[in-house]
Design goal:
Elements: H1 2-20, E1 28-29, H2 31-34, E2 36-45, H3 53-69, E3 76-80, E4 84-90, H4 95-102, E5 107-116, H5 127-135, H6 150-158, H7 171-174, E6 181-184, E7 191-194, E8 199-200, E9 204-213, E10 219-229, H8 231-244, E11 254-258, E12 261-264, E13 276-279, H9 285-299, E14 302-312, H10 317-343, H11 347-371, E15 375-376, H12 378-407, H13 412-444, H14 448-478, H15 482-485, H16 495-498, E16 503-506, E17 509-511, H17 554-585
Parallel strand pairs: 1-15
Antiparallel strand pairs: 2-4, 2-14, 3-4, 5-7, 5-8, 5-11, 6-7, 9-10, 10-13, 11-12, 16-17
Amino acid sequence: MTLGLLVLALIGALLAGDRWSDASLTPKLALDLEGGTQVILQPIAESGEEVTEETIQQAIDIIRQRIDASGVAEAEITSQGGSNIVVAIPGEPDPATLDLVRESAQMLFRPVIVQAAPTATPEEQRTPPSDAAAETPEPVDASDPAWLTDELLAEFEAYDCTAPENLAGGSDLVGDPDEPVVACDAAGTAKFVLGPVEVRGQDVASASSGLRTTQTGAVTNEWVTNISFNREGTEAFREVTTRLLSLEPPRNQFAMVLDGLVISAPSVNTVIADGNAEISGSFTRESAATLARQLNFGALPLTFEVQSEQQISATLGSEQLERGLLAGLIGLILVGVYSLFQYRALGLVTIGSLAVAAVLAYTVIALLSWTQGYRLSLSGVAGVIVAIGITADSFIVYFERIRDELRDGRTLAAAVEEGWRRARRTILISDAVNFLAAVVLYFLAVGGVRGFAFTLGLTTLIDLVVVLLFTHPVMVLLARTRFFAQGHPWSGLDPAALGARSRYVGRGRVVAPGQPADRRRGTGATEPEADLEPVRAGAPAGPADDEGGRRMTIAERRAAERRAQASTPQDETGAQADAGSERKDS
């Protein structure tokens, strides 16, 4: 029931998106299967300095951030010959996305006037700035609240820093350097009103990261970013820090804005007179190094010259996609044939479970293509094909546990429950290992390997959903049917074919394979002990055969011996009474 509602909800959402939005009933394809647009950019330093490999890498990071924030997935951004940047975008990107690729990035330093949550309500932010603006009608410096006009406050109130278009970066978000702007931090966790630009990126001489060193020369465990300004930057930064030191939060903060997004907004706690500043906070080694790299990029602003822009064909194309899908279909058929051969009618449960898993996987991937811009690559198709074996493995573990319980003489209903209890832990551990491997591979790999890891992790989660909400409930229902419960030879659960044996149920009683411990004649409970074949009194210890020639178990033999011994005194008393009667008569 739960799984049915889930499937209907997913399919309904996809159909609704196809009818009333821009969704498609088929997943979008990546570059290797569909082709796209390729743009080759040549970075040029405005100051004429040499463009280094580190600068190229930072430019790639900025372009990737822009494209990812615009909702385009599976784009390939690489360095060509250490001097050019190649951007390949799948499908037919819109002009706005291509503009994000071509635009230059700028590093600017602006003072913070107002800071709020990314979607703060107007009541949380409007009153204090309005009062401040009324008291100071004309701005006297870049931190003056008089910059907060009604128009700017209205823009700030309506600005949503959780919206992807406000996190993409680009010239549209940079604004006029001589005017205040509304901006988001790069993570989308806060929004700001920033004053006019006071220091530019080219005034940064260098930036580095490392462990903090105290005035006595001791090295601490705190990661910091160090920044040095040139002569012009030193003078400007001294004036700024002198003013900000006397202001209240958040106006004592100085925002570093890269590509229109705030990458850091530290507060000023001392006047920086020599142009060497230390930025501290909750940095890790990686985050401190990232900030230093961004600041260094700002020290060498780039412009991008478009060398070429052209449509590229699919590197693999529809033919390879058809072959990949054919391979998956062949694998699915082979798994189905093997299941029918090995488990007979029970194999239909495997086929049904795989069909449900396939519907879920297809629907989820199509929904991700619509809502998240996900594109399916050939490596992603390979991940789906590998998942067929992983999913089938879960069913095999479960079925074999059930058959083991049947071999021990349990009824099918009891075998299903006990088998599920034992198989569930194995399935969970196996899928957890597969999912962990997919997560590690996704974050450590690059390119097409990430597509494989994504679909592998996704289908592993789907496997859990199918086993928990479909396979096990179906087995519980089948255990109540006569065909499976009575162990029909074609059910795949025939106790005789599995070599099931009678089992001891206590008090000297044994029951036949597939019979409950409390079965009684005509009532569905236990048959009386008289129905168990007794062993003749005085019979030698050891294995014996019943009337059907079956070798009796130790429990069966001992139970029969006890019944035989219990009847012996009665027989002897009767014999003595008969003998006495004969003597009396004579």
